[in-house]
Amino acid sequence: MNTTVTESARQAQQEIAEEFAFFGDWTERYQYLIDLGKQLPPFPDAWKSEEHRVHGCQSMVWLVPSGDAARLHFDAASDSAIVSGLIALVLRVYSDRPAAEIVATEPAFIQAIGLAKHLSPTRSNGLAAMLARLRAYAAQALEAG
Description:
Elements: H1 9-21, H2 26-38, E1 61-68, E2 71-78, H3 81-94, H4 99-104, H5 109-112, H6 115-118, H7 121-144
Antiparallel strand pairs: 1-2
């Protein structure tokens, strides 16, 4: 996995699409997602609170923002292996970026790697809820200046 922060969200999405293109089938892609999820940094139990919980997800998901409009950082975790992998992809695209870039960036990688067709409706809803929450944090940071 590329652990360096890429120059832009657009570039991160391109790299994700290229990585997933290496895998021939969805069994391999799901395994890759699970492996990405295992590489997420440790998430303190104290952050697993109702305040940080993302509703709309079938599994438990927590999202914690830090920073300001100039650079927002996100920590996130899930109790599901595949959802943890989705979180790893989302953080790669959106974390450690200016709030304006976060708000302006559509999650094109979801379509580009075929995720939209291969996620269950509940996982798709959960992913949409997580993206909406993350982008709402960015919008709030922009308003706060």
